[in-house]
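Note to self: keep these together.
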Amino acid sequence: MTKEKVLIIDDEVKQTDMVAKLIEATGRYEPLKAYSAAEGFDILNKNKQWLRPNRIHLILLDIKMPEMDGLQFLAELREKYDDQSMGVVMLTAYEDEEKWDKATSGFVVGYLKKPVVEEELIRTIDRFFLGDDARVKMTVETFARHIEKREEFKQPGTGG
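Structure:
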């Protein structure tokens, strides 16, 4: 049985390698690592299948990266790949209204803050691979969390 592939895209090598080790330790998933958005697209292209969905179904995506940031990557991903089974979890240290707006408009299934909490990361990945219903529910929940965050950003003293 082949393992589900999870692509980690983050320019921070230590962070990427640590997340890959956490994922690999489950024994259930195969982590793939990209240290830039361009490398992420190269790996996605290598995992294309003829008339079938990409072999990669989940991407853990950092926002702040040089050349092309994670939000630009997400926008281009949604343009290039019309693959509804491909989910994206933002994995980032940055959390502000603009980033939430752009991430949720790209239909992300999750938004996890760095430093990564192992249990939360693995629980998110496990839930994603439960199937289409779980993916849709995760996307809706992430969007709902964004609406709640909008209110937080507007509170005095939060910079909103």
